């Protein structure tokens, strides 16, 4: 299977899918800390537009595999993809937690 080059998404507070992701991640974090979930998309939208996220800048010199075989060869001895997934999810939850702090305060 041919791999596509990853690209960052621009968050759009008017996109229902983007907003639903933030609400879901914030609610997961809230439940972890014993806080009640919050589902008001209008309030969350107001909060998220005030958060400044730095622009993604890819590292130079990083090679992205074009096929599964290249990816497997490159990943020998590298970090397991599931660990990277959990790191990404953790980062998303941290962002959601920061949004939740705005809601609480």
From TrEMBL:
Any one GO molecular-function label of the UniProt entry: ubiquitin-like modifier activating enzyme activity
Location of the Ubiquitin-activating enzyme SCCH domain: 4-77
Pfam families: UBA_E1_SCCH
Coiled coil: none
Pathway this chain belongs to: Protein modification; protein ubiquitination
Family annotation (InterPro entries): UBA_E1_SCCH (IPR019572), Ubi_acti_E1_SCCH (IPR042063), Ubiquitin-activating_enz (IPR035985)
UniProt superkingdom: Eukaryota
Record family assignment: Belongs to the ubiquitin-activating E1 family.
Name of the protein this chain belongs to: Ubiquitin-activating enzyme SCCH domain-containing protein
Species in which this protein is naturally found: Artemia franciscana (Brine shrimp)
């Amino acid at each position: 299977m041919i791999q596509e080059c990853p690209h960052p998404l621009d968050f759009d507070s008017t996109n229902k899918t983007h907003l639903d992701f933030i609400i879901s991640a914030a609610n997961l974090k809230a439940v972890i800390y014993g806080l009640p979930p919050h589902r008001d998309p209008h309030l969350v939208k107001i909060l998220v537009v005030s958060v400044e996220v730095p622009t993604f800048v890819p590292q130079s010199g990083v090679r992205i595999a074009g096929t599964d075989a290249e990816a497997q060869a490159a990943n020998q001895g590298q970090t397991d993809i599931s660990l990277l997934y959990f790191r990404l999810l953790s980062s998303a939850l941290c962002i959601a937690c920061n949004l939740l702090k705005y809601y609480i305060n």
